[in-house]
């Protein structure tokens, strides 16, 4: 299984030591909070921000607060680790442990279905509770991996 994503920026210099983590930063925008519903919507947005950054190992998220005309009014910094605490203090719209447990169970289930090489597709139709897993190609990787990456991963 391959997980890939884009990251917006680096907070500081690239570390001198190869094994030291890079201080990646994710940049996001969100409307200013004017009403209780805005706060709930922001909590839900934070889930998406957190999942992306958590899975990719991005330690910091910077959120630009904008008005209805799109003008930047404020900048807020969050560490990825602190984000799950925000819903606990607010409307409690999501729980990080529940999300991680669901992902673990889903991936465990998926590993029982995806049991051979090839290209697989996962789909869920809108308003359906059913998830389909389909094999679309017997071999290959869906042309998303460069030959150099495949060769690098094949080396022992």
UniProtKB/TrEMBL annotation:
One of its GO terms (molecular function) is nuclease activity. Its main location: nucleus. It catalyses: a 5'-end NAD(+)-phospho-ribonucleoside in mRNA + H2O = a 5'-end phospho-ribonucleoside in mRNA + NAD(+) + H(+); a 5'-end (N(7)-methyl 5'-triphosphoguanosine)-ribonucleoside-ribonucleotide in mRNA + H2O = a (N(7)-methyl 5'-triphosphoguanosine)-nucleoside + a 5'-end phospho-ribonucleoside in mRNA + H(+); a 5'-end triphospho-ribonucleoside in mRNA + H2O = a 5'-end phospho-ribonucleoside in mRNA + diphosphate + H(+). InterPro entries: RAI1, RAI1-like_fam. Its EC number is 3.6.1.-. Residues 1-150 form the RAI1-like domain. Its cofactor is a divalent metal cation. One of its GO terms (cellular component) is cytosol. It comes from the Eukaryota. Pfam families: RAI1. It is found in: Nucleus. Keywords: Hydrolase, Metal-binding, Nuclease, Nucleotide-binding, Nucleus, RNA-binding. GO terms for biological process: NAD-cap decapping; nuclear-transcribed mRNA catabolic process. Decapping enzyme for NAD-capped RNAs: specifically hydrolyzes the nicotinamide adenine dinucleotide (NAD) cap from a subset of RNAs by removing the entire NAD moiety from the 5'-end of an NAD-capped RNA. The NAD-cap is present at the 5'-end of some RNAs and snoRNAs. In contrast to the canonical 5'-end N7 methylguanosine (m7G) cap, the NAD cap promotes mRNA decay. Also acts as a non-canonical decapping enzyme that removes the entire cap structure of m7G capped or incompletely capped RNAs. PANTHER family: DECAPPING AND EXORIBONUCLEASE PROTEIN, DOM-3 RELATED. Belongs to the DXO/Dom3Z family. This is Decapping nuclease. It comes from Trichophyton verrucosum (strain HKI 0517). The lineage of its organism: Eukaryota, Fungi, Dikarya, Ascomycota, Pezizomycotina.
